[in-house]
Write a structure and sequence with these properties.
Layout: E1 3-4, H1 5-8, E2 14-25, E3 28-33, E4 35-36, E5 50-52, E6 55-63, E7 66-71, E8 80-85, H2 87-111, E9 115-120, E10 125-129, H3 135-150, E11 156-158, H4 162-166, E12 182-185, E13 189-192, E14 207-215, E15 218-225, H5 226-247, H6 254-286, E16 293-295, H7 304-312, E17 318-324, E18 327-333, H8 340-350, E19 353-356, E20 360-365, H9 370-381
Parallel strand pairs: 1-4, 16-17
Antiparallel strand pairs: 2-3, 2-8, 3-7, 5-6, 5-8, 6-7, 9-10, 10-15, 11-12, 12-13, 14-15, 17-18, 18-20, 19-20
Length: 382
């Protein structure tokens, strides 16, 4: 069994250890030490990173009580190595994990729900609770959780004996064989946990709810704590500053300004569509051919089919084309004959593809000129 130094002192970052074994596995090496300060991935918390000697530690896993360190280079068996844990990553993990305990403990106190799924992701801490809540409920829990931070309460972590454990009421996601490690924040949470935690709640900094959704028969809530919450808030500040500059609106007025821009966009899109329809109708009326080729770059792709149908009305058929990156979008229509054979011939000639029904085919042509398209139509139709 590997001696776990992080359980004795979660703030320990530098240590020495003896290499028990080191084996190559693909492009990396797996090393066992007699003791380690590196926390292995588990219980929803990611592994510590850092260095052992000159080798980088990129991952860490527990294999039946033995902690294996994933290394970028080999270590010699029997040598004594100096280990260094990435302190910023460790602190971030501890802030997220301790914050989750406070939040989950409060949900359990106020609603009786269990945290049945917990993960410290790269974007946020996600928690799945087995009962329904509202966003307003989650924000009230957030406020209470931050009060716990302001109180700067001690966070205790210990292994009670079997008799003492029977007297402790604690949360646990699953049945645990062997010794149980208890993490307690007095008045907020008592939970079985193998992870690393800050020593006082004040070190968490803050807890911020960043996402809320109904999930299965309960809810999924995402939070950020400490330095991650601060980075998130700075991103929002920068984004709000940009929106304020674009809209010429003050903070607090941004939603109304964006709503006004959205309404104006919708009005202009409608007006643009109306004008495009009028312009296309004019082109159709001006076309003299019984099978015209009408170029309409101003039309969105979604309008090519109905426009081709309009152009083919009372004619042998019509082809509507619109320039796109690397070629052309097209719609081919006929009310008098099956247009699919014509489409296949044009596709063969113009490096195209597409499909549809007897009266309407839509697709793309390759990088050819407008003159090439018109010549191909003339050739195919005779």
């Amino acid at each position: 069994m590997t001696i776990r130094l992080y359980e004795e002192d979660s703030e320990l970052l530098d240590f020495t250890a003896t290499v028990i074994s080191c084996e190559r596995k693909g492009d990396v090496y797996l090393a066992e030490l007699d003791r380690t300060a590196f926390f292995p991935e588990g219980g929803g918390q990611g592994a510590d990173h850092g260095t052992l000697g000159t080798a980088e530690v990129t991952d860490c896993h527990d294999h039946h009580g033995i902690i294996l360190h994933t290394l970028s280079a080999p270590l010699a068996c029997g040598e004594t190595v100096e280990g260094h844990v990435d302190g910023r990553r460790r602190l971030s993990m501890m802030q997220q994990h301790s914050g989750e305990h406070i939040f989950s403990g409060l949900v359990h106190q106020h609603f009786g729900y269990n945290n049945v799924g917990f993960h410290i992701g790269s974007d946020a801490v996600t928690m799945d609770f087995d009962g329904k809540m509202t966003l307003e409920d989650a924000l009230r829990i957030e406020a209470l959780a931050n009060e716990a931070i302001w109180k700067d309460l001690p966070i205790q972590a210990w292994y009670p004996g079997a008799e003492a454990l029977e007297q402790i009421e604690y949360r646990s996601k699953k049945a645990i064989d062997g010794d149980v490690r208890i993490v307690r924040i007095e008045g907020y949470d008592t939970c079985a946990c193998c992870g690393t935690h800050v020593k006082h709640t004040g070190q968490i900094g803050q807890i911020k709810v960043v996402a809320f959704q109904n999930y299965k028969s309960g809810v999924r809530i995402s939070i950020l704590c400490g330095m991650r919450a601060l980075a998130y808030e700075n991103e929002l500040l920068a984004e709000n500053r940009d929106i304020s500059h674009i809209t010429s609106a003050k903070p607090g007025e941004l939603a109304a300004a964006v709503s006004h821009l959205s309404e104006e966009r919708d009005r202009l899109k409608y007006e643009l569509g109306r004008m495009a329809s009028q312009l296309f109708t004019g082109l159709v009326r001006a076309a003299q051919e019984d099978f015209p080729v009408i170029r309409a770059d101003f039309l969105p792709v979604s309008q090519l089919r109905p426009s081709a149908g309009e152009a083919a009305e009372g004619r042998q058929g019509a082809l509507v084309i619109a320039r796109r990156e690397g070629g052309w979008n097209y719609a081919l229509s006929s009310r008098q004959t099956d247009i699919r054979p014509v489409s296949r011939e044009l596709q063969n000639t113009l490096s195209g593809k597409g499909g549809g029904s007897a009266d309407m085919v839509q697709g793309v042509f390759g990088e050819v000129s407008e003159e090439d398209i018109r010549a191909a139509v003339h050739q195919v139709l005779g």
